[in-house]
Amino acid sequence: MSILNEQESKKLLKRVLAFSKADECECNLDGQLSGNIRYARNTVSTSGEVSDLTLAVQSSFGKKTGVATTNEFDDAAIERVVRRSEELARLAPDNPEYMPLLGPQKYGKMNTYFDSTAKVTPEYRAQAADDSIAPSKKNKLIASGFLNDSHQMSAVMNSRGLFAYNVSTDVNFSATIRTEDGRGSGWVTRDYADVSKLDTASASAIAIKKSLGSVDAKEMEPGKYTVILEPAASVQLLSNMFFSMGQRAADEGRSFLSYKPEEDEKKPPKNKLGMKMFDQRVNIYSDPHHPEVPTATFAGDGHAVEKTWWVKDGKIENFRNSRYWANKSGTRYNPTAAGSGQFIMAGGDQSLDDMIKHTRRGILVTRLWYIRQLDPQTLLYTGLTRDGTFYIENGKIKYPIKNFRFNESPIVMLNNIEALGKPVRINGRMIPPMKIRDFTFSSLSDAV
Amino acid sequence: MQRRDFVKVTGAGMGALFLPVTGNIVTAAELLDKPMDVAIKKQLADVALNAARAAGASYADARIGRYLNQFVTTREKVVNNIVNTESSGIGIRVIANGTWGFASTSNMTPDSIAKTARQAVAIAKANSKFQTEPVRLAPVKGVGEVSWQTPIVKNAFEIPIKEKTDKLLEVNNAALSNGASYITSVLFLVNEQKYFASTDGSYIDQDVHRLWAPFFASAVGKSGFKQRTGLGNPVGMGFEYLDGKAEDKVYVEGANVGYNNSYDMLEDAANAGKELQKKLTAKSVKPGKYDLVLDPAHLMLTIHESVGHPLELDRVLGYEANFAGTSFATLDKWRSKKFNYGSPIVNLFADKTQPYSLGNVGYDDEGVKTKEWDLVKDGTLVNYQAIRDQVHMIDQDESHGCAYSQSWRDVQFQRMPNVSLRPNAEKDLSANDLIKDVEKGIYIAGRGSFSIDQQRYNFQFGGQLFFEIKDGKIVDQIEDVAYQSNTQDFWNSCAQLAGKSDYRVGGSFFDGKGQPPQVSAVSHGCPTTRFNNINVLNTKRKV
């Protein structure tokens, strides 16, 4: 019921459009069949399955627009949601930023579905959890973790003849493994489109090693240090920066990418497009065809999505923007895949271990936690290290250290690059481990 | 099948599991025009409970939910979006072989519901193979058929769209004509129509309303840009919250206007415009130690982070270790009966009953009648927040009634109730009274950047508006302020509380927790409060 194939989706959306009396109508259909298991204190806590299908209908009369959603699909429910969106549209004032709907598009092939993931059973999940719990118990540790597998479909159809459809699968797993006395903690996360790549036992072995190795952490003075950020430590800061790369805010003077003109500068640009912001080695792009992090090849409005560079050789290559703003400012529209924040940061060939080996003095950071923005002008963020922070000396992990609070900006970080390692998949993105000099830690935390 | 046919069939005394019914029996027309008939909900819930029992469950509950939202979004002079969302379905939770199982579906036919119940039991049985701590539920006596409704005056869903868009555009205009360069204003409305039934014999029908009207204004100047968000609160109220009554305003001399049980959004937006212009040229704070006077619209989030979360029993016990973290407030500290969470004037309590609050409901999502209880009494840690399957671990036999699920789709679990700071019981002091005793301090209003570690020791919090206090008076609006402290040190530095006239309830509309993550809305009441000798940082940075 919740996962319709392409033909079923088309048939249903045609039924929806047949009820439409609006000038323009766009329908989005999203189905989800997901299952999860959660464990803590070395035993299963909660787990469940969800099946749901949601229809969103956007109706427009001229520049007036309204949206209504439902998750019921008999004729009466469908007609009602269409009428409700029309009623809202009629009551709305004109939206001068309304853009006419797109006509039919051509889409690249999508490789986001894996049968293996769609067929996960409650028994598989229970075993995957036990593969993490059993070795933890053996080491007198306490495991907690979570596995979620998801089978999803999305389809868009509009009154101008556009139709897009995709089906995808995802699995994500994470585990926090702590010592019985609470003095050590290790963490690991994995995510894939294909569940056959997931091995919760080998992933948990990393968390176990970090947990045992983080007991008796020593205090280091807060200050500026060379750090090796594992991909899980930098992904949130980079994602926050990625989502702040909007053209409109930049053009309006409300972004780190707004251009501040010099006195008497004639015809200054509004934003920093084409300007160098980061180290030469920083290259960031989105690509729906990337084999490790595939996405749909269409955006929420049905526009086709292809590979887009955001940062090339440290320069701002493109902004995220809306179709309206691109049109108004005479720039290219850069759509991103529906419901995805996928991006790829290029790196080098070194593994994390190689990077540690080539570090004379530094700090290895497993992950950062509770990251919050302090200043949108400088993208200054605060947060804390968590679940495995270690001092490196002469190419080796010397001892665990107490967690730090950091106050740092990804802009500064990406200008202070010492080395980039081989990118790995994390949270649906590809991120390299990074060696960064002068990373600012502002205080110590007692948390383990 | 029509509704009357369904009632006829189920009323004939046939076993719910064997109903010869296909198709969506509860038609959309019935759902959309009015909440689903309670008799139908009871029939459907019984299908779930009977199927779960027949499959081997020792306990089962079913939550039939219809969740309505309306979002109106505006930006400067434009209405960007008007969205109505609706989601209906059933979530079934069971215990089989001493293990929890859960499954949910939007397909509300008896066949589908029975199949979903059996799937929940199958999941529980699959997991029971690795279960080492069988579930122990605190007893709850069935309450029969009861109902509860948020005490609203004006149902916000019934207010015409034009009135809502006009209001927001007027708010935008007030900010823009007083100094803001840009503004986004939003109206979020939530209506949870939820029906809970359990094998304990409870059938509870609740109609819950919430509203939030935030705005986000900014001003661009020569040296950069500044932001100011609204000082209103999300509330468990109807549209009457936006009446902005004079008696609900609290004036702080030289600083802001605070809002109690109604909000003058127009006035706040106009003030935001003016304050943004001041922010553009305000001096940057000199880092160091200051006495802080914290406005309720700011302190509520400090309470949320440094008291609400660390005293969630699931965090203390390790159930949230893989996501939100654990807690410094461990069981040994509570058992000692001597753990000084705060100074002796600090009294913190939990409830799901305060009027106008986001947590206010009659029963929680596992059928427990809601109540009020103490967490910190005269500075000492005395209790936690717990639900049915946890209280036995703190030697108690009655759930605190704070289970919640964000929708029919998700499993209910322990969520933060309202957690509040009691006002000064001896003197009904005002914010102005508190400020006049401070020699060197900062008065902070509104919520800003909040970050705290996974055991809730080290935190760094910002705000919206900062005012320097010198010799008992607010002298200047300042910028770039954040304070860093340790939870226990901070609450032990609590030096003075304003009284009951200053007590206000603020809240968080989207508090996140759990895996898969769920949001919950929660309020925190407090008076303006003084904390001595706190470390203040300057957050300005060159890049």
Question: Can you walk me through this structure?
Answer:
- The complex is a heterodimer of chains A (448) and B (543).
- Chain A has 448 residues and is of the alpha+beta class.
- Chain A has 2 domains: 6-213, PmbA/TldD fold; 217-448, no CATH class.
- Chain A has helices at 6-18, 75-91, 115-118, 122-138, 200-213, 231-243, 247-251, 323-329, 352-357, 410-413; strands at residues 24-40, 43-61, 64-70, 141-158, 163-179, 185-192, 223-229, 284-286, 308-312, 315-316, 344-345, 361-375, 380-393, 396-400, 404-408, 417-420, 424-426, 429-431, 434-444.
- In chain A, strands 3-2-1-4-5-6 form a 6-stranded antiparallel sheet. A 5-stranded mixed beta barrel of chain A has the order 7-12-13-15-19.
- In chain A, strand 17 (424-426) and strand 18 form a beta hairpin.
- In chain A, helix 4 runs parallel beside helix 5.
- The longest helix of chain A has 17 residues, at 75-91.
- Chain A is globular, with a radius of gyration of 24 Å.
- The two termini of chain A are 45 Å apart.
- Chain B is an alpha+beta fold.
- Chain B has a domain at 3-65 and 85-135.
- Helices cover 22% and strands 35% of the residues of chain B.
- Chain B contains 11 helices and 28 strands.
- Chain B has helices at 3-11, 28-33, 38-54, 110-128, 161-176, 265-281, 296-308, 313-317, 331-335, 431-435, 487-492, and strands at residues 59-75, 78-96, 99-105, 144-149, 182-198, 202-212, 215-221, 224-229, 249-251, 257-259, 283-284, 288-294, 348-351, 372-377, 380-381, 403-404, 413-414, 418-421, 440-445, 450-452, 458-461, 465-470, 473-479, 481-486, 494-497, 504-513, 518-526, 529-538.
- In chain B, the strands form 6 sheets. In chain B, strands 11, 12, 19, 20, 21, 22, 23, 24, 25 and 28 form a 10-stranded mixed sheet that branches. In chain B, strands 1, 2, 3, 4, 5, 6, 7 and 8 form an 8-stranded mixed sheet that branches. Chain B has a 4-stranded antiparallel sheet with strand order 15-14-13-18.
- In chain B, helix 3 runs parallel beside helix 4.
- Mean pLDDT of chain B is 93; it is low at 1-32.
- At the A-B interface, strand 1, strand 2, strand 3, helix 2 and helix 4 of A face helix 2, strand 2, strand 3, helix 4 and helix 5 of B.
- Strand 3 of chain A pairs parallel with strand 2 (78-96) of chain B, so a sheet runs across the interface.
